[in-house]
Structures are given as C-alpha cells and as structure tokens.
Amino acid sequence: MILTVTPNPSLDRTYEIPALDRGAVLRATADRIDPGGKGVNVSRAVAAAGHRTLAVLPLGGPAGAALAGLLGAEGIEVAGVQVAGQTRSNISVAEPDGTLTKINATGPELTADESEALLTTVGERSAGADWIACCGSLPRGLAPEWYGELVARAHRAGARIALDTSGPSLTAALRERPDIVKPNAEELAQAVGRPLATLGDAVKAAEELRASGARAVLASLGADGQLLVDEEGAFFGSAPVVAVRSNVGAGDASLAGFLAAGGTGPMALAAALAHGAAAVQLPGSQMPTPADLDTSAVRTTDAVPLHRALTEPVS
C-alpha cells in the first residue's frame, strides 16, 4: 500500500484546443476534469496499476467535496482533513503539438491546527504503508520545515518516505534524510544553484543532494529520460514517446511506477520510465493502466553517458 500526502490538492480542468490565440474566443475540441495535485496523481496512478493506495489531503468547500468524490470514483481511499478554506481549481490548455499552458490557483491558507491535523492523520493512517509519498508545493500557512517534520515523524514510525517538492521545502527536509527525492531537471539545478548541461552535471548534482541527506535521487530529465542515483551507483534510462498529448501528471505517474515496483534499483527505474512515457500520451492528467505501458521500449543502463548533453540545458 502506498499512502500519499498532498498538502495543496486541486480540481484540474483541461481544455484541448487547436491553437492558443490570446484575446480570441476559443472553442475546445475536448475537455475533462480530474483530481489534481502531485500526491493525488501518484495515488491515481497507483490505483490505475491495481495497487492499494490512501490519499491524505486537506479538503475545503464544494471543490473539496467534488475532489473527494472523483477520487472515490477511481477506487481511491481518502483520508480528508476538513479545512476552512476552499480547495483550489486549476486550468490547463493543451495544444496539438504538446504545448501546455497552465493556470494554477494559490489555494487556501491552512491554520496551525489544520497543519497539525494533517501530520496527525498521516501518522494514524500510515500503519501498513510500504511507502509514504509526500508531493507538491506547500500551501500558505505551512512553513518550509513542514515536510521535514513529516519525514522525521514517519521515520520514527518506521515508514519509508518519497519526497517530491522543491526550493526551501526540499532543502529543509534533506536534513531528515528522506529515502528518495524526485526533482525534475529544473528543480535539481535550483537545488545545487548552477546550470546542468550534461548528464554528468545531473549525476554530480544528485550526488550532492545525497550528501545533503537524501538517501536516493530519482531525477526526471524531460525528453532525455530519468536518472537514479543511490548507494549502488548511478543508473540512466529512457523510453521513446510517439506523440506528447499532455505532460500533466507524467512525473507523478513515474514516481508511482517506481514505488509500486519496489522503489529501488534499475527495475524500479524501468517501471518509472514506462509509466511516464505512457502518461504523456494520454489526455489531461489521465493516469496509465497496465494496458498502456510499453516496457519493451524502455532502456536502462548503469553506464551513464556522463558527457551526453541534455536536450535543453537547465539554468
């Protein structure tokens, strides 16, 4: 069972349009509404793969009730913490060439009592969880150290933690030694404070995060693939994509695949790649099922081509 924690969830509506023309009246060719938030998407991908998952998240107002209903319809158990503020709603506009324009709302401001209630709920519901995945940005009212406190409490209870966040929240949590962190290329560059132009740069940056406390690093490098750096070494992999339809939630699907496959080593990396590649070929933030996965096209190696240039150097 994989328990997810999403401190700032959302309702995500996606519109597919022929082209984004500012100031014009645009007619969507398709639209859908999905539960949103990085941890929520991890739960959705875990459930789509046929595994048990529990989503811990704050819920507020009609949007929060709608979010819980959508998750329940997908077979996901929800441990909601009622908050006074309104759960946010986000909008994504997808064009045929894969370009995605997103408008993300800020979300509610959580009180000190609501913050503690979230931490307490995680502790109460984490018994039997193989992994706790803590994902996304923190809402207003939660200090950058909030994730660090969650990691510390989870470790005291004997749980393994996967952390997908960035900026001060990531930096503050590293000292509590999360079992794995999952930055994308931009977040990895931000964490070490310098550009990443090659795979070697990314490997060195991941090793620095490990030196700062992360026990393992799973880095999404966009079209270049994914990188896993842990105590066993550095592993790199890629999976071809025929056409990108929407990249919303693709990184979350990757993390779900990685954790569901055990959360360690090249086999889990291969699962992450297959899930991510499948997700970008689906509409909106739809999560892949086993039927969507093409594991035959995945390539992984422990001989990382360090001098290979990244497709788009990250500054």
TrEMBL record:
Taxonomic superkingdom: Bacteria
Similarity remark: Belongs to the carbohydrate kinase PfkB family.
PANTHER family per record: 1-PHOSPHOFRUCTOKINASE, 1-PHOSPHOFRUCTOKINASE-RELATED
Species of origin: Streptomyces decoyicus
Gene: pfkB
Coiled-coil parts of chain: none
InterPro entries, alphabetized: 1-PFruKinase (IPR022463), PfkB_dom (IPR011611), Ribokinase-like (IPR029056), Tagatose/fructose_Pkinase (IPR017583)
Assigned EC number: 2.7.1.56
Pfam families: PfkB
GO MF: 1-phosphofructokinase activity
Domain named Carbohydrate kinase PfkB: residues: 23-290
Protein's UniProt name: 1-phosphofructokinase
Keywords of this entry: ATP-binding, Kinase, Nucleotide-binding, Transferase
